[in-house]
Amino acid sequence: MIIGIDDTDSRKGMCTTYLxxxxxxELSSFAKLISEPILVRLNPTIPYKTRGxxxxxxxxxxxxxxxxxxxxxxxxxxxxxxxxxxxxxxxxFVLEDQFDSVRDKLSSFFKCAVKDVITIDEAKExxxxxxxxxxAFKNGRGxxxxxxxxxxxxxxxWDYTYEYLAYREKEVWGTRRTVDEKSLFEADRVTYPxxxxxxxxxxxxxxxxxxxxxxxxxxxxxxxASSVKKAASFVVSEPVExxxxxxxxxxxxxxxxxxxxxxxxxxxxSYILEGxxxxxxxxxxxxxxxxxxxxxxxxxxxxxxxxxxxxxRELVRxxxxxxxxxxxxxxxxxxxxxxxxxxxxxxxxxEIHNPQCPSCGKRMKSAGSGQGYRCKKCGxxxxxxxxxxxxxxxxxxxxxxxxxxxRHLAKQLLRFENEVLPVFPGR
Length: 427
Prior knowledge:
The chain has 8 helices and 25 strands. By secondary structure, the protein is α+β, with helices and mostly antiparallel strands. It folds into 4 domains: 2-154, Alpha-Beta Plaits; 161-248, Glycinamide Ribonucleotide Synthetase, Chain A, domain 4, CATH 3.90.600; 256-346 and 392-415, CATH 2.40.50.1010; 349-390. Strand 9 and strand 10 (205-206) form a beta hairpin. The chain is elongated and about 105 Å long. It starts with a strand and ends in a 27-residue tail after the last strand. It is an enzyme of class 6 (ligase). Residues 354-394 form the TiaS C-terminal zinc ribbon domain.
């Protein structure tokens, strides 16, 4: 059977991936684990998410399904943050004899949950329609993610990466983590580009160690299980209670949809949009850099490189009206949050000067509004100013936010094939 679980954590603690890792160990005493567990990230704009909007799924073989149902639901009841109003767990069980009949609908539901907004009622209706065993705790919002994770397990025709998650011993949850930073930089040095986003070299920051009160000690992301395991072997840290390697849709851009016109954009969705820069980028209070992008119909939308994107804002500030770009990211509050940008065409920029006098070589003065220029010494005149092209301090190419600002689903440039990419500073 497949077991899908979601929404057991809160902003203060716990982690659904930890519960999955624990269940994986406990269930193995009376069930057989068939494959690595799955961790899927869903629509990153959903306001109800705790941190990364992740759900998980296990694939097992067992003789006593009732024992599995009972063990899993009791474990969720005892470990989920049920006293938090925003924690509403859901668990779904898909039996083997149902796999073929539910595969298409659950797969479609999974892909929709990554890109779109789904209601709790829609999730409950689907679970009932497919005659699935499930349990909804409180309002049952976690059923959305639980069904999605089951759909991902049934449909492996999607791009995937891996994450190695190490978990803390329970008695130190909520305290400061102890992970040797030098060992993380060494792990990155040895295994990059097979692993990524362990550290941020440009900003000299550790990325893979969270700061919240959840059980995760660190997470290493990479192209396959052996690569993330190798990187983890270099890490020096406090004692680790358990580890789990997940297959995941992180780093795949699965949340993005191509759109041609701004009028087609909806709030809380993520897009790839091409257009023309129509305003000079400005930096507002808080350090956020914003410019407007115009589509072929003449509609505009604000595009933002927010303060956490750090040095990426320097690139955005070099854009000028007339540049052609493709932006990748999510839309909330009518603002496009840029995750990546592809500069396809640079506009020409000029410096304008008063013309030189052909007789004496000095710069002419303005003869008055709309009257051209005149040399006071020689009396010569001209209607044409001197125009000099400015060399742009930016090149066409693909640019991304630094690892410290990367969203879970955003695809790293190193994972793009058949693209001519600039070398990002620091690599």
